[in-house]
Amino acid sequence: MAPHSKISHSKKNNDSGDKPKIDKASKKIFKPKKREQNDAVAAAKSEALTLQLEDEVPDFPRGGEFSASRRSDYDEFGAEDHSRKPKKKKGKNASSKSKEAADDWGSLSGDGISGKLPRRVNRITLKNITPGMKLWGVVAEVNEKDLVVSLPGGLRGLVHASDALDPIFDDKVEVGEIFLSGLFCVGQLVSCVVLRLDDDKKEKGSRKIWLSLRLSLLQKNYNLDVVQEGMVLAAYVKSIEDHGYILHFGLASFTGFLPKNSSAEGLGGEVKLGKLLQGLVRSIDKVRKVVYLSSDPDTMSKSVTKDLKGVSIDLLVPGMMVNARVKSILDNGVMLSFLTYFTGTVDLFHLQNIYPGSDWKDKYGESQKVVSRILFIDPSSRAVGLTLNPHLVLNRPPPFHVNIGDIYDKSKVVRVDKGSGLLLEVPSIPEPTPAFVSISDIAEEEIQKLEKKYKEGNHVRVRILGLRYLEGIATGVLKASAIDEAVFTHSDVKPGMVVKAKILSVDSFGAIVQIPGGVKALCPLRHMSELEISKPGKKFKVGAELVFRVLGCKSKRVTVTHKKTLVKSKLGIISSYADATVGLITHGWITKIEVHGCFVRFYNGVQGFSPRSELGLEPGADPVTVYNVGQVVKCRVVSSIPASRRINLSFIIKATRVTEDDMVTLGSLVSGVVDRITSTAVVVYVNASGFSRGTISMEHLADHHGQAILMNSLLKPGYNFDQLLVLDVKGNNLILSAKSSLIKHAQQIPADINQIHPNSVVHGYICNLIESGCFVRFLGHLTGFAPRNKAADDQKTNILEAYYIGQSVRSNVSNLSSETGRVTLSLKQTACSSTDASFIQDYFLMDEKIAELQSLGAGASDLKWVEGFKIGTVAKGKVEDVKDVGLVISFRKYNDVFGFITNYQLAGASLEAGSVVEALVLDVAKAERLVDLTLKPEFINKSKESSISHTNKKKRRREASKDLVLHQTVNAVVEIVKENYLVVSIPESDHTIGYASVSDYNTQRCPHKQYLNGQSVFATVMALPSPETSGKLLLLLNEVNETSSSKRTKKKSSYKVGTLVEAEITDIKTLELKVKFGFGLPGRIHITEVHNGNVLENPFSSYKIGQTVTARIVAKPNETDGNRKLSQWELSVRPEMVTGSSDIGDDVPENLEFKVGQCLAGYVYKVEREWVWLTISRNVRAQLYILDSAIEPNELEDFQNRYRVGQLVSGHVLSMNNEKKLLRLVPRPFSSLPCRTSEEPQINVVDKDLAAYVHEGDILGGRISKILPGVGGLLVQVGPHTYGKVHFTELADTLVPDPLSEYQEGQFVKCVVLEISHTVKGTIHVDLSLRSSNVMLSQDSGDVHSIVNSNGKCVEKIEDLHPDMIVKGYIKNVTPKGCFIMLSRKIDAKILLSNLSDQYVEVPEKEFPIGRLVIGRVISVEPLSNRVEVTLKTSTVPKKPKSEIIDLSKFHVGGVISGRIKRVESFGLFIAIDNTDMVGLCHISEISDDHIENIEANYRAGERVNAKILKVDEERQRISLGMKNSYMSDKTVLQIPSEEGSDEPVADGMKSIDVADEINQFPILTQARQRADIPPLDVALDDFDQFDANNANSQGEKHANEEDTINEKHKRHEKKKAKEEREKQIRAAEERLLEEDVPRTADEFEKLIRSSPNSSFIWIKYMDFMISMADVEKARSIAERALRTINIREENEKLNIWKAYFNLENKYGNPTEEAVMKLFQRALQYNDPKKVYLALLGMYERTEQHNLADELLNKMTKKFKHSCKVWLRRIQSLLRQKQDGIQPLIDRASLSLPRHKHIKFFSQTAILEFKVGVPDRGRSLFEKILREYPKRTDLWSVYLDQEIQLKDEDMIRALFERAVSLSLPPKKMKFLFKKYLDYEKSQGDEERIESVKRKAMEYVESTLA
After folding, report:
1. Residues 1456-1480, mean pLDDT to the nearest whole number
2. Which residue, of 42, 1437, 1658, 1892, has the fewest CB within 10 Å?
3. Are residues 84 and 453 in contact, defined by beta-carbon separation less than 8 angstroms?
4. Does the pLDDT of residue 1235 top 50, yes or no?
């Protein structure tokens, strides 16, 4: 037999190995078979050719000596391999075999077409599989990026993730591991299409089969005509809906739907997007192109595909169930016919009986009916494979009860296939499993005749070799070597196992080896040898057997190592984190080397880390140079945390043990060598027992911060620290310090609180800083705290800036608490100052160390130059360069060393570049290679005198220093000021040079005193020159240690504020004189401190540099500027200061003792783009704004050039800021206001400033800020935050076309103030004019408001207009009914559409654009209402004014008129009265006694009607009419209009004017249209609408009470009076709300909104206006703007907008209900939900939408069940609608409401019952409450009131009798008796009155008794 072919199932490894031993065994079997001529044997061979098996294929394919089948994942059952045997075929045998092979190869081709029946079944093999084949398979594996599918014939295919489903989901489904595992599961049956076949380059004869599950390929020929009910279809879940799933069939022609109530069992678990489902077609909707499916698995498993008309092979799908008939019995299967036109074959492994014996053919007869499923379809050869497997027929995968590697002893032989193999019945649990054993896997030796050795019924021992998932058959092996093999599958491989393996192949990444038993493994390149090998192929020969050790086995991936140390290691292994026990010594290999340590890998991927300190390195050694990646190391487990997967290791096998005597203690000194340096610390190896490593933080490298940073940057590994102080011990690590201050005082630094003594000074370091103080650490964790008040002498010091963490400090122990362990310290310099020169001494010693480190790179000889520059010696050099600050000297002998001589050290000498000089060395900076020199004669002469000999010089210096003794106080002169120290000379000691620090330990960061060259200082000698001091004389400045009022401080300076001094002028600046006085103290004389009051233009003209002046100190230097050179004394030479008293006191900031309006002068010290800054005095500044500086535009443009620094400028104080000491000046005087401070709100400041100096008629300079669109005019800036508006008519002197063309933004203009008005918010509005006539008139003090000129100039007053007057104006607004024009700033005129032109105007907006200048004639003027009408017609017929035409005297209230309907509007009828020119309005509420739904349907224009005059308004020229039948009846008494009617003002009654147009113009005044036509805006607002409602109610009640007692005339008089009063109230409200400016356009409303953005009244009126313009969308946008604009605190205002919005959507929403509900849901998010619900309920009740109201009330009673108001609204609704169910509702409410609300609820419900419902129910409720609360007189009173209204006297008196018989307190009884008495008085029965009085007296007497 030939070796079997193979294809890998894995996406990563597709190798199959050659197995020589199996080949040999196979060849032995082949030899006898070549001699056989038996056709049956040949047939068996041919059959076996196409049968392949599959296995649980590992990533590295297995092989072995004993098994041919385990070499391949797709082995054939006893098949021949023609690809490896053709050379051995000879003669007839060879030709016959080739013929048989050819027959089998063609078994899928044309046999079914030729007409003769084939002898063998159609088989799928690797040789005949082709792209396009459709196969049925079962999912064997779900991997990250692909699926493995088990196919017929034991083949295995791969499905890439992108081919798993059609790309119809966009980004909803992500491709990946989670994606595949969520949609597919192992064991799932799928239909697939072969896409392509790939040859595996590594394995000969092994091919990958790539498949696709896309339904677009499987069902591409399907359409709605093909789909039938009962058919099973596959589909993807495209989307998940509430009631089911929308499906996609891979086709665009139709979709599917699967309801959720369908059996979930058939869906295969959780349904996700993209999941592949099967469903049974229930119905087809061909119109909608939707197929409705069911997922019942039982029904689907029995659903047989019906015969289809015109069916083609393209419509067949694998897995399709068909009815078939047996057509013929073949050699190795059965041929069936199905679906009329098709034939298919079933092989032996797919018969109905899963254990077919040798008599299987007897089970099938021709034409026998069977049910089968399609297994595969080959469209090219039209071959079809079927299956009769009982599991597959039921659409379920066959079950498996065996595992690979299992051994079964008593397996029964079911069938023996000659030359092929054995079919066994394996006794698995719970059911037996069929297994097939290939002939090559039966025995080690050759088997001549299989049928003789094995008989049916025999029992054999078998081991499971593989599984064929689709057929449900296992493959087995009988070879003893295979059964006894230890490693048979991947599960048998264990980490650490030592195995022999054969090398199969060698590649660049490693070697593939095969373990006996067939498991393949990878030996990575690094593990092929101990050391890295460049040519692995030389050492690893293919076929060689070597010893390996298993490293790990993960996901069928086995890795091994050939490293000898690991293979031969006898130490325990670590294969899991739990194996790592502390102290375990094992082998591992390094995987990564870093600076801080090494990562070590163990078995099974376990990893540990060995820190640098545990690597056993020498100090300074680099781990990379000692260890290599891949190196095997022996290591010890130090610690292990399995939960965190962390193992700490050590390469030091023996842990060092240290005795207690050798242990390092806190405070001990150790030495160490630098190992490595980080940015924040230095790691050193410590020479101490028990510790190998220590850490020095960067701050602990030196006492000086700057030196510590420099030291950290210069240190190199290997540097040796002689002394280090142990501060703390953390584990095996020491915390060290190299600070000299701590090392010197190591014995005195405490480690325990008991070692601390009060008032002692201890060295420590700052470990933490907070705003409230400093934490000072000593040794270990001993810490003290210095609170803020003890951290510094100056309490204003910022602790966080004065100290830094790690700073060395001297601390004074203030307080000590042993109980709490708290140590309180003081860091004040006065208490902790240094007593020696150690601070500066350590500084110089560390400086030398730094210099040495810097010179290490250049060699030790690099510092030899220092020998040539000893302090006090003379050095010779050449002037290299001359700088402003001094001379740079170069030295011939040392090219890279430079000298420097400051100007002070030149002593007046003038030298040029190139000059040779001899100068004395004052200081040497070794690190900078810089030498400080001096040419001062006292030093040079001293040097010359002692230069006779070098020896004499040394002697002289020693003598000089002998003059000085320790702790001697000397007077020294500062020669050089360095950053950290001073170089001084001591004149009294022959100018000996010394060095003194300018700071101390605690004051390193504090501002220190500024020193000047030549300044005299007092110092104390602390250290004489010695090697320890680097040969320097060290001093301690007395000033450094004394910052408080001590005795030495008084010596320091006697200067204070008020002291008179002589000062020398050193420099003259523009605004100050620079002076010095005393010991070089710097000072200045401000320009305002020169003269008293008389301000001069140039006050410094009489002063010169070098002049000495007498001045008085007026202020000390600013303490906060201590670090700056700007810190200086303030002096004054003003005569009054110099001659006056010296008692000035401390420098207290002066208050601004100025008055608003006061005239001041100051000097310019800064000129900016828009401001000029002046100095008024030393501390007071002023500023002048650009627009205040001039009024002429050309001067404003030249603003910056008009002012220069030092210029004298005067002005008047406008405002003051005390905090900033800042004034604002304006050049011109103005009326003053009371002084105001900066604490007032800024907006008021601006407005008061504006009101103070800007008045009507003032001429100002301005700058155009914005050009407003349309006819908005200009926005002009007149102040820093002040803007005015220029009306469109005020841009030019005459009205000209396009007046804006002359202006641009940023342009300076000259303007005049026309008016200053106050807005609602309290801000000020300024109206400006740019007309030159206004400016001229203002300059002449004329009247700005009375400019009237008919020749083009605008008219300011309406009184100046008269009919027939010719006027000019700009188009302001255009509507379909006409337009408005602007005549002037305050006067607009209306032009009706009919008066726009003599011709017909089609589109007014085009012919009359906004801004166009027009000339017209005045038709009418109404000064009271401010109305003007103009015509543009050219006809000259004069028209009389309206007032002359209309005569209302003949109309009387109550009269009846007749007329014709002129126009029908939604809010009423306009009626033209007969025989007059008058038009009256009959409001909709006055048309009929009944409610009218549609007024247009009942009345038409031209119809004659009669009406009654209800009101005549002569002032406003209006007539109100009524047409109710009750008005027309003579017997009817005139009624006051209802509440609805009374809310409406009377309409216009003008002759021929378009009233509707006027309503559009005046929406505030025309409430009739708002209330009738625009219900969306019916929201009660403020006192305006409330007054209307209250007034109407009160009036209604009043007239109802009086109608029987007042005669008709008096009644009419009262009514007229009430109406007039109401009109006044309305007019007052309008004036108050709209500021006498009735909006007529959107622009005017916008102006109103800007002034009152939080007023819902204005917003709603704006919405009204837009709806009146028929622009509903604009009204909606206004509502949205209002909701965004109104402040969040104005809840009621916002709620009003929501209410109006509800009404708007209720009328105009589409659909209405949906629009309202969407808005309602939005409103709930922003408001109190209860208020919103009530608002919506109110709207529903108003609009009589009772169903919606009831539905909403039901929700409200559930949502707000504790609200009494909601339950009452529900009851009120039921009562109004006369519905039942009141009592159950009351019972529900009583259960829901809290007990304290019961009284209110029951009483209000009872009142409602009395008024609307049944009084008896009301009585029962009152009785119920009074039983519980009999003493509540308020309940009795309400109860009595309700009964009194019903007028049942017996019931009322009985109730009163009950009430007065109660035993209540006198006060309550008095109330009841009084109420009883009042009632009887109203009835007029004297007897009963007396009875009540008598009962009251009896009660009083009984009470007194």
Report:
1. 86
2. 1437
3. no
4. no
Residue 978 burial (10 A CB sphere; 0-12, 13-18, 19+): middle
Rounded to an integer, the average pLDDT of 724-745 is 89
Q: SS3 for 171-192, per residue? A: CCCCCCHHHHHHHCCCCCEEEE
Rounded-to-integer distance, Cα 344 and Cα 366, Å: 14
Q: Which amino acid is at 765?
A: Y
State how beta strands 1283-1286 and 1324-1329 pair.
parallel
Write the DSSP symbol of residue 113.
H
* Residue in the block written with tokens 């000062």: 1063
Q: Please tell me the predicted confidence (pLDDT) of residue 625.
A: 87
Asked whether residue 888 carries a pLDDT value surpassing 90, the answer given is yes
State the virtual CA torsion across 101, 102, 103, 107 in degrees, nearest 10: 100
Model pLDDT, residue 609 = 94
- The mean of the pLDDT values for the chain is 78
pTM of this structure: 0.40
Query: How far apart are alpha carbons 1669 and 1374 in whole angstroms?
Result: 11
1497-1505 long-range contacts, Cβ below 8 Å, gap at least 24?
A: 1499/1461, 1499/1464, 1499/1469, 1500/1461, 1500/1464, 1501/1461, 1501/1462, 1501/1463, 1501/1464, 1502/1460, 1502/1461, 1503/1460, 1503/1461, 1504/1458, 1504/1459, 1504/1460, 1504/1461, 1505/1458, 1505/1459, 1505/1460, 1505/1461, 1505/1469, 1505/1471
Dist. CA 1105–CA 1685, nearest whole Å: 65
Q: Which residues pair with 887 in a beta bridge?
A: 882, 901
Residue 1550 token pair: 């003008």
Looking at residue 110, its pLDDT comes to: 40
Q: Are 336 and 370 in contact (CB under 8 A)?
A: yes
Residue 117: predicted pLDDT: 65
What is the three-class DSSP state of 1700?
Answer: helix
Report, as an integer, the average pLDDT of 1765-1793: 82
Contact 495, 552 (CB under 8 A): yes
3-state secondary structure of 584: coil
Beta bridge partners of 679: none
CB-based contact 1548:1555 (threshold 8 Å): yes
Confidence of residue 853 (pLDDT cuts 50, 70, 90): confident
Q: Cα(1477)–Cα(1553) distance, rounded to whole angstroms?
A: 11
Nearest-angstrom CA–CA distance, 1290 and 1275? 12
Neighbours of 242 (CB within 10 A): 5
d(CA 1689, CA 1695): 11
Cα–Cα distance for residue pair 675/717, rounded to 1 Å: 5
Q: Say how far apart CA 91 and CA 89 lie, in whole Å.
A: 7
Whole-number Å distance between alpha carbons of 1257 and 1344: 7
Q: Does the pLDDT of residue 1242 top 60, yes or no?
A: no
Confidence of residue 1158 (pLDDT cuts 50, 70, 90): confident
Closest CA to 470 of 382, 406, 374, 378: 374
Write the CB contacts of 858 (distance below 8 Å, at least 6 apart in sequence).
none
C-alpha 1651/C-alpha 1635 separation (Å) is 11
Q: Are strands 342-347 and 333-338 parallel, antiparallel or unpaired?
A: antiparallel
Token output for 646: 């962390």
- Residue by residue, DSSP assigns 1273-1314 as -EEEE-SSS-EEEE-GGGSSSS--SSGGGG--TT-EEEEEEE
Give, for 1333, the enclosing helix (H) or strand (E).
helix 1332-1339
How far apart, in whole angstroms, are the C-alpha atoms of residue 648 and residue 53? 49
In contact, 1432 and 1390? CB cutoff 8 Å: no
> What token pair was written down for 429?
């649990």
For the stretch 548-578, what's the b/e string if a residue is b when 16 or more beta carbons lie within 10 angstroms of its beta carbon? bbbbbbeebbbbbbbbeebeebeeebbbebe
Tokens of residue 828, six digits: 């004040």
| pLDDT for position 402 | 86
Helix/strand/coil percent split, the chain, to 5:
30, 30, 40
